[in-house]
Amino acid sequence: xxxxxxxxxxxxxxxxxxxxxxxxxxxxxxxxxxxxxxxxxxxxxxxxxxxxxxxxxxxxxxxxxxxxxxxxxxxxxxxxxxxxxxxxxxxxxxxxxxxxxxxxxxxxxxxxxxxxxxxxxxxxxxxxxxxxxxxxxxxxxxxxxxxxxxxxxxxxxxxxxxxxxxxxxxxxxxxxxxxxxxxxxxx
Length: 187
What we know:
two-stranded antiparallel sheet
C-alpha cells in the first residue's frame, strides 16, 4: 500500500472513504422473499451503529463513496442519507453511490472531485476490493474479511462487516484526530 506515514497519522489527514457494500456496510448475508404478487424482495442486514459511524466520518468532512455492483437496497439508503438536514443545508457533502468497483469509474470519480488515490481509505473485504485498495493510502478490512484481503490490509479491525466495523473505524479516526463524537454536529 501507499502508506508512508503511520496509520494514526494517515487517519488524521485522509479525506475520502471508498466503501465496499456487501461484507462491509451489510453483513454479506442476503434474504430473498417472494411476495404473493411474484415480486422478489431482497433484504440485507446491517448494524445501526455503522450508520452512526458513517455520520461521524461525514461530520469530520470525510467524503464517502459506496462502491456496489447492485443498486438495491443501497441506492434507497443513500437517497435517505442524502435527504438528511445536514446534506440539504450544505453542511455535509452528499454520499456518492457508484454502480461498480472498476478502476476507471473510481478514477473518474476521484478526478472529478480533485482527489488523488493516496488521500483515500479503501474499506473492503474480498478479492474484488484488492486491486483498487492497493492504490489508496490505507486499506482497511473488517475482522471477517476473506484471506485475500486480510493479508493485504494495512488495518484489520476487530468488528465484523455489517456488524460494527464502520463504527469501530470511525472511532479510530475520532481518536486519531483528538475528537469526541459527542461534540460533532447531528446529521
